[in-house]
Every structure is written in structure tokens, then in C-alpha cells.
């Protein structure tokens, strides 16, 4: 079965991941996030428990 021969496909996968890691990933990481995390404390809402009619 030629599909199980890893010789050509391993090289293609290796080159693809090296290209992604060396070229594409640094370009993506330089983008500024449109929703940066903030140091604002989360608001705590007070909720009332639901009263079930069968309890």
C-alpha cells in the first residue's frame, strides 16, 4: 500500500510546519488584539434562588 510509505509525506509535513513556525506564526503574533484583557475586577451579581413549585 503506497499510502503507508512515509518518505514523501513526512518531508512535506516537516517543511510545512517549518514554514508555519518560521514565517507565518511571527506575522500572526504581531497583530494587536482588538479585545485586550483588562485588569478590571469582575462584577458579582446577587441572584435569588428559584422557588420550585414541587418542593
TrEMBL record:
Protein's membrane topology: Single-pass membrane protein
Spans through the membrane: 6-24
Main location: mitochondrion
Single Gene Ontology MF annotation: proton transmembrane transporter activity
GO annotation, biological process: proton motive force-driven ATP synthesis
Entry GO CC: mitochondrial membrane; proton-transporting ATP synthase complex
UniProt keyword annotations, A-Z: ATP synthesis, CF(0), Hydrogen ion transport, Ion transport, Membrane, Mitochondrion, Transmembrane, Transmembrane helix, Transport
Cellular location(s): Mitochondrion membrane
Keyword Glycosyltransferase: no
Record-linked Pfam families: ATP-synt_8
Top-level taxon: Eukaryota
Assigned protein family: Belongs to the ATPase protein 8 family.
Name of the protein this chain belongs to: ATP synthase complex subunit 8
Origin organism lineage: Eukaryota, Metazoa, Chordata, Craniata, Vertebrata
